Q: What sequence folds into this?
């Protein structure tokens, strides 16, 4: 049994069968990549996992509990954090404030009214946020406006914010899309380090084969809404079905 | 001190100083001088400054922090006023229970309105709140006449006999605080200056200082941080395990209770209320106050409220005769011409001046008057520095 079990999940948008009978099992403490050509249903699948979409059929179990019908914040509180394709951070706030918010969410839950206390006097939160910033190598950016940072730094911050919640499963949606080569390599190193040092499962959706083969321990190939193969990276590389899906029949 | 950091404490002390010394500060011109009509230090207007300051502070807690633009906040002010006046008519002429009643009634009403309106955000939220406020106005004006007095509104009458009062037969009750009449004033004559210290003003000012202090605490609290997070990125908020709904509802209710507090105080100062208090222009006015002063700043809404109420009460009193008096030194033809030019901007035309001021602020000072103040402060600082360092041309930050 994996930490995340997707069984027979189907999702239809009008006449388009975006997902049909997807089965997926992500083992605990591994890095699992989901790849596939454009329109294969990768993002739809991800959205079904985090509560943004509700699949028409099938079940999604996280750690033995169903996530279906729960709202995004409830699913997050169960231990699933998500990194977006374009970094979603709190642009109007400072970097430290950005980092404090997930720390509060971890400690106080989805809603707790603390309107009179001074947030900078919450020692445990401030310390945790600051040490997380050190881990992410951005301690010097501390009081910077989050929106004014580079794309790579925003990505780092977003990953750091997800980690601050100590999730058990981290979902990444094309984390290196639109990044320069150097930033991409930095992100790969960061993710490697996270998966080595922390007790965490990572599921990653990616286009860039360089990223996929540097990180993944297990790969699922999705095409036209159904999984083609699920195997170890070595076997995927030469798999005829995968080559066909990616490169067309003539290749 | 008071759980505030140094900068906030400074601001709090400045605001305290200004409100306590307002009778002096607002009356800078001698009584007999021509400028006396610009004096704003009379009780009625000073009370309006602080009461609408409270209203705007509360509005800013919602709009400034969460970015939800409510276009129906006057409804809570009106409901608070009705609650307060019924408390005075039926229970006690003391202003404290009346004000409490105003806050509670507005709070309950805002829970109901917020629960429905907060299902949508952006322009749809604004329209929903506007619809609610206009419905409240229409109801107060017509169907609910037995409760609201309809068009004429409610006043304390000589027939009202509150439970806790010792009124004589036929005597009309007056709002008081443990026997101290709200209209009680102490006048101080120094030379040609006349300063009025009014009991009602000081009570309202103390309430405003408390309201201002609470708003600083909310701004700096974890809850305030969450509200700013909602304004910044609701998607990230949900995917960080935080539920935006109860946060926005709590902010909406707090904001509604501030409006109720302002409504209750209005009744405490002047014991009457009518449905026009809930009309949509009144809701628009508080939006203007907040934007003019500076959205999301602590002191901005109070400044905005002050500027608008000053213009409404002082600028609108200047008439054609006054203008002719001012420009009497000019040759006749030129005098008439200048008066002709200036006239549209004063008296009943004060809205025109306000509109121009508002446009200028929004275009050139998006951060409101507070940003203007900051820019001037920086300019003075840099000028001082330039002198010290022999005129270095370091650009401003």
A:
């Amino acid at each position: 049994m994996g930490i995340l079990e997707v069984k027979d999940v189907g999702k239809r948008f009008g006449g388009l069968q975006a997902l049909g009978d997807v089965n997926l099992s992500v083992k605990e403490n591994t890095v699992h990549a989901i790849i596939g050509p454009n329109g294969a249903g990768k993002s739809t699948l991800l959205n079904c996992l985090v509560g943004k979409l509700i699949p028409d059929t099938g079940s999604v179990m996280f750690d033995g509990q169903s996530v279906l019908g729960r709202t995004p914040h409830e699913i997050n509180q169960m231990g699933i954090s998500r990194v977006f394709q374009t970094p979603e951070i709190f642009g109007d706030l400072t970097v430290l404030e950005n980092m404090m918010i997930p720390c509060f969410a971890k400690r106080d839950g989805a809603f707790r009214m603390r309107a009179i206390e001074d947030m900078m006097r919450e020692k445990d939160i401030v310390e945790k946020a600051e040490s997380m910033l050190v881990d992410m190598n951005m301690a010097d950016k501390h009081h910077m406006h989050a929106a004014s940072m580079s794309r790579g730094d925003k990505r780092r911050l977003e990953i750091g914010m997800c980690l601050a919640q100590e999730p058990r499963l981290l979902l990444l949606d094309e984390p290196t899309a639109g990044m320069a080569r150097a930033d991409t390599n930095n992100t790969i190193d960061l993710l490697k380090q996270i998966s080595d040092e922390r007790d965490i499962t990572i599921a990653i959706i990616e286009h860039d084969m360089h990223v996929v083969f540097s990180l993944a321990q297990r790969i699922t190939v999705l095409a036209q809404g159904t999984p083609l193969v699920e195997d170890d990276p070595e076997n995927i590389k030469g798999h005829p079905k995968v080559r066909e899906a990616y490169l067309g029949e003539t290749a | 001190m008071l759980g505030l950091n140094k900068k906030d404490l400074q601001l709090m002390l400045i605001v305290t100083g200004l409100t306590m010394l307002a009778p002096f500060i607002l009356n800078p011109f001698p009584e007999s001088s021509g400028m006396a009509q610009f004096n704003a230090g009379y009780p009625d207007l000073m009370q309006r400054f602080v009461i609408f300051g409270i209203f705007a502070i509360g509005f800013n807690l919602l709009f400034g922090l969460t970015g939800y633009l409510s276009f129906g906040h006057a409804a809570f002010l009106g409901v608070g006023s009705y609650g307060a006046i019924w408390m005075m008519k039926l229970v006690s002429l003391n202003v404290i229970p009346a004000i409490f009643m105003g806050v509670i009634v507005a709070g309950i009403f805002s829970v109901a309105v917020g629960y429905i309106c907060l299902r949508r955000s952006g322009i749809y939220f604004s329209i929903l709140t506007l619809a609610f406020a206009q419905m409240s106005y229409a109801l107060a004006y017509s169907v609910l006449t037995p409760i609201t007095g309809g068009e004429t509104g409610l006043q304390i009458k000589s027939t009202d006999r509150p439970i806790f009062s010792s009124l004589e037969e036929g005597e009309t009750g007056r709002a008081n605080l443990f026997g101290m009449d709200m209209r009680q004033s102490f006048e101080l004559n120094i030379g040609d200056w006349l300063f009025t210290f009014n009991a009602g003003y000081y009570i309202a000012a103390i309430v405003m200082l408390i309201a201002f202090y609470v708003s600083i605490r909310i701004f700096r609290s974890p809850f305030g941080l969450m509200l700013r997070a909602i304004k910044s990125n609701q998607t990230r908020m949900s995917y960080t395990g935080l539920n935006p709904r109860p946060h926005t509802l709590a902010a909406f209710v707090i904001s509604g209770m501030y409006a109720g507090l302002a409504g209750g105080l209005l009744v405490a100062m002047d014991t009457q209320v009518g449905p026009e208090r809930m009309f949509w222009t009144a809701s628009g006015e508080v939006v203007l106050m907040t934007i003019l002063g500076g959205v999301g700043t602590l002191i901005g809404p109070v400044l905005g409220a002050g500027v608008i109420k000053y213009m409404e009460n002082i600028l609108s009193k200047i008439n054609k005769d006054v203008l002719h008096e001012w420009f009497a030194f000019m040759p006749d033809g030129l005098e008439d011409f200048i008066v002709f030019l200036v006239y549209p901007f004063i008296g009943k035309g004060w809205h025109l001046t306000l509109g121009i001021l508002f446009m200028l602020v929004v275009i050139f000072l998006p951060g409101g008057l507070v940003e203007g103040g900051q820019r001037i402060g920086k300019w003075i600082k840099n000028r001082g520095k330039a002198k010290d360092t022999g005129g270095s041309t370091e650009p401003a930050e």
Q: What stands out?
A: Chain B has 17 helices and six strands. The mean pLDDT of chain B is 90. Residues 244-269 of chain B form the longest helix (26 residues).
